[in-house]
Write a structure and sequence with these properties.
Residues 1-25 form the signal peptide. The protein is mainly β and 162 residues long. It has one helix at residues 2-18; strands at 49-54, 61-68, 80-87, 95-98, 107-109, 112-115, 125-130, 139-147, 150-151. The chain contains 1 helix and 9 strands, in the order H-E-E-E-E-E-E-E-E-E. The strands form 3 sheets. It has a 4-stranded antiparallel β-sheet with strand order 4-3-8-9, with no helix packed on it. A 3-stranded antiparallel β-sheet has the order 1-2-7, with no helix packed on it.
């Protein structure tokens, strides 16, 4: 019995190894002469401003985070933003949090988590809401632009809001 299993296993190994395709990569350029390409530079996030409003459905406060739209060198708007909340800023217990409720929470895009994707990416400003910041005490917000799978430098924090 053991001998049959060993023979079967040895017979399957070449079949399993032969079924995978080898990896290959190449970069071909047709033509002659110098070639140029601009690098895509993801800009630093713009410092956000924060205002408070009331959710008409729950009557709870919402923080509205607003910032200027980021554009890459080709004048295209970035594809999204990672918005972070700083709780208890300026203290020894300060921490950066991912936003879990509201439109600032975002979704996973190209493997990057918590990306807010604006409905109109080319407008002059963007904004989203944080539906749980009011329960955290003093808070600040930062904005990190996303272009595809790349992220730009994070903005300086907003003013402290309590």
């Amino acid at each position: 019995m053991l001998r049959r299993l060993a023979v079967l296993a040895l017979a399957l190994v070449p079949a399993l190894l032969g079924s995978t395709d080898p990896a290959a990569a190449a970069w071909a350029v047709n033509g002659a002469g110098p070639a140029k390409s601009l690098a895509v530079l993801v800009p630093q996030g713009a410092r956000p401003t924060v205002s408070e409003t009331t959710d008409p459905a729950t009557y709870l406060p919402l923080y509205v985070v607003t910032w200027n739209t980021g554009f890459v060198a080709t004048a295209r708007p970035v594809t999204g933003y990672q918005i972070r909340r700083i709780v208890f800023p300026g203290t020894s217990i300060a921490k950066v949090e991912v936003i879990g409720k509201g439109t600032c929470a975002g979704t996973t895009v190209d493997g990057l988590p918590n990306v807010y994707v604006p409905g109109s990416p080319g407008t002059a400003t963007q904004s989203c809401t944080d539906a749980e910041g009011y329960a955290k005490g003093d808070v600040q917000y930062t904005v990190t632009p996303v272009y595809g799978r790349w992220t730009g430098p994070t903005s300086s924090p907003s003013a402290i809001y309590s």
